[in-house]
Structure formats: structure tokens, C-alpha cells
């Protein structure tokens, strides 16, 4: 047989010959789109919602498969029917699983929590507004104000006029898909804000500079994260950094930042449920130095999936 090759290492490259007749495959113009639509549907089940949308633009076969209930059922929360029943407009009628997914992708509010399915991250995101937090002296207009601010996810955000005792705490107990999540504080600083940098003459009270803010997070009553940082000098991500979707970044204002606190894991509760319940407590505190602080906007706490393998539903 022509084109037979000697064992590797026993011949020079010039002796290796390729037999086109023996290896040629006649595809007769057959392409991936010629596969049965049911096969393409199964392939799309392994793609992210964003990639499914991109695939739908390639040809009619892919577009037809991308609308299949088989594809979008795999992307829906396991308990989505219960979730729809609790949503304000959950009585809406949906004639396809894709429409249900699109409905859940829009931010919904339940029990002071805002949650949605991220198309780019492929998982559940949760936001707890500032009004649901425990803000020391938050009801005293001398120290805090509650205003509407561009880019906020809520009608009102907490604005710090001036305090020398900063103490904000929050908690949440909810069900999430099994996986790893990040917790961040969503905040903004005015141009003339003071008390949030390492060397701040306005915050001086007898100490050399100001004191850092203490961030803490506990998961299921076990403290897992405790860190200190100056908000003005600290490492934080711009709004929307974790997402490439416009839908995940709606009403974005460049002044809003996410200060990353830490990660936590959700483990499966009932067998094969892919859902676990988690209890979170978090705080933002600076009470040691007596330094005055002003110009801080707090919009709340953001939870986003870090590495999402499956989609589930938030049930506060």
C-alpha cells in the first residue's frame, strides 16, 4: 500500500509520504447544520445563554434549535414554577421556556432582595438594598440621608452626611444553586468625600491619618472573612466588571464601585436538588479612631456567581 509510514524515529522526514487517496473524506457539502435539529439542541444545552444567542445568528437550523424548550429548560431554575408564583406578575402566561428565562433575567424584587439570572455569568445574582441594612444612626437626618441617586438600583440609597462612628450591618438567608459566590458592597464616593483614605487631614482626630474600614462576612454562623481597607485607596471593581452583558449592567453609573469582600460556597441540601440554603451576615465598620467621615453612598450588597455550573433559583 502506497503511503505506508515506517515506525516513528526510524525514517527521515523526507521519507514520510501522505496518501491522499487513502485518507480523503468526501463530505459532499455536508455541514454541522445538516445534523438533526434534536442533536443541535443537545449541543446548545452545554452552551451559555449568551453563546446560544450568538449561535442562533449563524443559520436557520441553529435559530430553530435555539428556541427549543429542551435548550431553555436546562437553563431554568429547578424550582422556577414556585419562583414564578411568588413574583409580583407571576400570573403571566408563557408559551415557551425561553420566555420564562427572559422573564427571570429581568430583575425581580422579593422581601427586600433583588435577584435575576445573569445571561453572561449563567447563574443567579442577588442584590440587597441599603434600606434593608442596619445602619447605626441611619434614621437621624443629622448623620444620614436617604436620596435617589443616578445609577442606583433602588429608589433610595443611603448617603453619609457625617459620622465618627460608622457601623453598617446586614444579613440574608436564602436558597441558591450549588456553587461558589462572591459578596461585594456597592458604593460610591463624592469628589469631596473625606475619612476614607490613608492620609486624610479632614479625618484627623489626634491620630496620624485615619483608620481603615473593617469588612467582615460570616457564612452559616461561621466567620469566614475579615479584612481592612481604605475605600478611597482599596482594590475594587468598576460596576459591571464581572459581566459583559448590557442587560447585567443596566442603569450603570461609572461612579458606582463594587468592593469585593470574599467568596462563599453553597452546598447541596436535599439530595439531587442542586440547591442549598445559606445564611449570610456581613458588616462595614469603623468605630476605633473617632475619625469623621462624609460623602459615602451605599447602595447595598451584591452576590454574584464566581464559577457557575448550574442554574437555580433564589428563594428568600
From TrEMBL:
Name listed for the protein in its UniProt record: F-box domain-containing protein
Q: Which residues form the F-box domain?
A: 35-75
Give the matching InterPro entries: F-box-like_dom_sf, F-box_dom, PP2-like
Recorded hits in Pfam families, A to Z, give:
F-box (PF00646), PP2 (PF14299)
Superkingdom of the source? Eukaryota
